[in-house]
């Protein structure tokens, strides 16, 4: 099957993302890349756990005093929902329904932006309290871990937006189907990392 | 399309190499770049040995000595050994599995340029206010307080070149998983490809902790972070953990492909199949797995407690088991073989006892109580040079001789090669054998000078003479390489005993590798075909048809160049008197991300090479009759 083949919903392959050699390589390679990202975040999590609540003598900030579950819950809901909407997008991609895919990707983007806005608000709130990046080892570790996740979200938003704009006029083919698929994989990965951040940083933080 | 084989002008050739995505050209580039940094780091070692030749010497200053030892270690591991092994992996892995190229040719090029520009960035530190001087391990308790920009060069340079290494590692894994020729099952893969696969998997899991460690160092030094500052609640041991979680697997990342190279050389010149192939594969995987379980043996003296020390001591000793399996398999491959002592075989024969010596001292250090005595002494220096020079450098030199005809279609001179081996090998043992005794006598490593009358003078003098002999050996090797330019074309299978697919390709290798994908009928497929009297070289799995190839691209170079420029901005950003640095940082990142978006937006379908064009190219390469 060639990149330039024109498809109808009937001739569109079941797994368009893996119908070409390039697509297959891309999917395998991306899974391996995600394995490497897991180690990256594991290093950050380990550092955060080692430095949690550690600071200069007499530091007032603790996880219990700082974190509020309602905000973290709202962020979690936004991101989890965005993962679900990206599943819908890939469902439509597999059914050769370009419009459906674009719509659900747009909703994913909106939810992701909402998450990012809440995260920026959260950081700004902490900075106003005096919990700045340089304040303590705890602060540095917290902002590095959660900030690296936020940076990944930002990259994911730019990536998906670029894909949507680039392909808006030409629809689906076997060249761009793997691209949409791995972008969705990346988005799920970001979501999984957040589940761990929510548990390790916020839930375990509030419990103490 | 005859332009493929026409002579090009100088500018066109340079442009071709900057934009190339061909794994064979990138292999040559890795080879050249690796040799350059190997020479620089070797020269630094010679300067250090001259300084230590006699007591109270003042050949170099104490500060410069620190820079030399830091740059020697960093360069040798990250910028010499790694790219030289990548040169062999790039050249051989696609050929050995019968692929047209790697899975992601674009990423292959990106990996090279990130590595190379990161390395250049690190070396510019010598001319821009001082090189890093906190040792290649750059422990945070030392490096946080190092004045000047040396450590910043280390952090940013390794971050960039490390990203390149990671990308290349990922690429090799996917290539080996998805691009194997029909019939090439996992258990029919040549052992070098197996070690390349395991080594790439180690890269994949070992480099992210280093990335994070370097990021933390970057935050602490340049943005006022507190990861390692104990007055702010930080903990300097975190750096040590992250560094060694990377650093110990790094040793296996380097030595496993070296094992793989010897596992190709030894069967070829014993003219016997590799003894215990499946146990070799198993041992490779086991070493890779255990390599992640032992990092804290570098930290026995930190004070992690007896439980942690005991666990890591036992795990470390366990690694000797699969390594021993390999050594016995090599010996049993040679046993009863019809042995030809060529230069590569000579290196292999020299490697086995040297590496075993390094391994045995390794097991000695694995016992934590003894390590308290040996820690930070010249015994350690002797140990890891026995492993790295005795294991990796002999592999690189031996396989340079062995695979030179694959790279350049020329043979290296055998007589000069054997002389090189003896000069280098004797020099190596002279340099490092006596350092065991220096260590046991109490000489600490990383000191720039020592007092006379401690019984160290004689051994240090001998060690320096040995180092100079190694230097002469390397120069002889380079002369041999340069002489080969004038040599005669080597042709297909010049050793006459090639076993694996890379020897089955006619020379010079066309840019699409095999004209038709070969059919693999067992382990050592080319040997099987030769035994059955197949004059064609291989049995092929497909008729001659169109070949799909990737396009060249300058984008990898531009992406890397953007990172290179941005690194200068980041480096000078903390200086109050350099407000322009932020614009350089933003500009560099804009180039990088811009190039990435261009890559994303521009379709790159590659091109098809038609049957007639293939036949025309082959007629130009091999004369009438084509691929015979």
UniProtKB/TrEMBL annotation, chain A:
Q: What is this protein called?
A: Cytochrome (Ubi)quinol oxidase subunit III
Q: Which GO terms describe its cellular component?
A: plasma membrane
InterPro entries (alphabetical): Cyt_c/ubiquinol_Oxase_su3, Cyt_c_oxidase-like_su3, Cyt_c_oxidase_su3-like_sf, Cyt_c_oxidase_su3_a-hlx
Molecular function (GO) terms for this protein are: cytochrome-c oxidase activity
Q: Origin organism of this chain?
A: Lysinibacillus fusiformis
Q: Keywords assigned by UniProt? A: Cell membrane, Membrane, Transmembrane, Transmembrane helix
One GO BP annotation here?
aerobic electron transport chain
What the record says about family reads: Belongs to the cytochrome c oxidase subunit 3 family.
């Amino acid at each position: 099957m060639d990149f330039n083949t024109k498809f109808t919903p009937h001739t569109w392959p079941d797994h368009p993302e893996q119908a070409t050699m390039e697509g297959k390589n891309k999917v395998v390679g991306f899974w391996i890349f995600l394995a490497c990202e897991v180690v990256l975040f594991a290093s950050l999590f380990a550092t955060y756990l080692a430095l949690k609540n550690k600071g200069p003598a007499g530091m007032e900030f603790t996880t219990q005093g700082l974190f509020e579950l309602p905000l973290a819950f709202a962020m979690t809901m936004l991101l989890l929902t965005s993962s679900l909407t990206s599943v819908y997008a890939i469902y439509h991609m597999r059914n050769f329904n370009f419009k459906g895919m674009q719509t659900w990707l747009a909703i994913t983007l909106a939810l992701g932006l909402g998450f990012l806005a809440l995260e920026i608000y959260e950081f700004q709130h902490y900075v106003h309290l005096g919990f700045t990046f340089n304040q303590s080892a705890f602060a540095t570790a917290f902002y590095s871990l959660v900030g690296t996740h936020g940076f990944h979200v930002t990259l994911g938003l730019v990536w998906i937006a670029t894909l949507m704009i680039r392909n808006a006029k030409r629809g689906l083919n076997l060249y761009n189907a793997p691209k949409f698929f791995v972008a969705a994989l990346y988005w799920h990965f970001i979501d999984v990392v957040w589940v761990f951040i929510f548990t390790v940083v916020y839930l375990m933080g509030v419990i103490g | 399309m005859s332009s493929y084989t026409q002579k090009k002008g100088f500018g066109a050739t340079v442009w071709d190499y900057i934009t190339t995505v061909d794994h064979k050209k990138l292999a040559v580039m890795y080879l050249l770049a690796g040799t350059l940094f190997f020479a620089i780091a070797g020269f630094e070692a010679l300067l250090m040995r001259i300084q230590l030749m006699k007591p109270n010497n003042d050949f170099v200053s104490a500060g410069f000595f620190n820079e030399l030892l830091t740059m020697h270690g960093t360069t040798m591991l990250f910028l010499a050994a790694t790219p030289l092994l990548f040169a062999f992996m790039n050249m051989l892995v696609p050929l050995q599995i019968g692929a047209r190229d790697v899975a992601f040719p674009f990423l292959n090029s990106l990996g090279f340029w990130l590595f190379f520009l990161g390395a250049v960035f690190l070396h510019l530190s010598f001319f821009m206010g001082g090189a890093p001087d906190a040792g290649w391990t750059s422990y945070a308790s030392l490096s946080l307080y190092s004045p000047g920009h040396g450590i910043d060069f280390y952090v940013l340079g390794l971050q960039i070149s490390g990203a390149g290494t990671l990308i290349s590692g990922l690429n090799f894994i996917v290539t080996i998983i998805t691009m194997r020729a029909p019939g090439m099952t996992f258990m029919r893969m040549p052992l070098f490809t197996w070690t390349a696969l395991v080594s790439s998997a180690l890269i994949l899991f070992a480099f992210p902790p280093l990335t994070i460690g370097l990021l933390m160092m970057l935050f602490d030094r340049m943005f006022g972070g507190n990861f390692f500052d104990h007055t702010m609640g930080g903990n300097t041991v975190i750096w040590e953990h992250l560094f060694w979680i990377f650093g110990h697997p790094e040793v296996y990342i380097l030595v496993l492909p070296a094992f793989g190279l010897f596992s190709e050389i030894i069967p070829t010149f014993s003219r016997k199949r590799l003894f215990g192939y499946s146990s070799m594969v198993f041992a490779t995987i086991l070493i890779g797995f255990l390599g992640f379980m032992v990092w804290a043996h570098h930290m026995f003296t930190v004070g992690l407690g007896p439980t942690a020390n005991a666990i890591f001591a036992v795990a470390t000793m366990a690694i000797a088991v699969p390594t021993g399996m390999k050594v016995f398999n090599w010996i049993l491959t040679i046993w009863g073989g019809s042995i030809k002592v060529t230069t590569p075989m000579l290196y292999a024969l020299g490697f086995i006892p040297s590496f075993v010596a390094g391994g045995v001292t390794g097991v000695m250090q694995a016992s934590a109580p003894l390590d308290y005595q040996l820690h930070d002494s010249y015994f350690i220096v002797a140990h890891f040079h026995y492993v790295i020079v005795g294991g990796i450098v002999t592999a690189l030199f031996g396989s340079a001789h062995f695979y030179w005809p694959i790279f350049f279609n020329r043979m290296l001179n055998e007589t000069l090669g054997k002389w090189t081996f003896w000069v280098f090998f004797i020099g190596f043992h002279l340099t490092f054998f006596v350092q065991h005794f220096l260590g046991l006598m109490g000489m600490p490593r990383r000191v720039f000078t020592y007092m006379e009358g401690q019984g160290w003078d004689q051994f240090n003098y001998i060690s320096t003479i040995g180092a100079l002999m190694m230097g002469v050996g390397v120069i002889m090797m380079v002369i041999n390489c340069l002489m080969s330019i004038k040599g005669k074309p080597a042709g297909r299978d010049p050793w006459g005993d090639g076993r694996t697919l890379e020897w089955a390709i006619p020379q010079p290798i066309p840019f699409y590798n095999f004209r038709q994908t070969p059919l693999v009928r067992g382990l050592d497929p080319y040997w099987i075909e030769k035994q059955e009297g197949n004059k064609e070289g291989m049995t092929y799995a497909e008729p001659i048809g169109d070949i799909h190839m990737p396009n060249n691209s300058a984008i990898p170079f531009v992406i890397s160049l953007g990172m290179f420029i941005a690194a200068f901005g980041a480096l000078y950003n903390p200086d109050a008197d350099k407000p322009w640095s932020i614009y350089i940082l933003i500009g560099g990142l804009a180039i990088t991300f811009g190039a990435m978006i261009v890559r994303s937006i521009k379709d790159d379908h590659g091109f098809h090479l038609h049957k007639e064009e293939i036949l025309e190219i082959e007629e130009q390469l091999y004369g009438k009759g084509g691929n015979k």
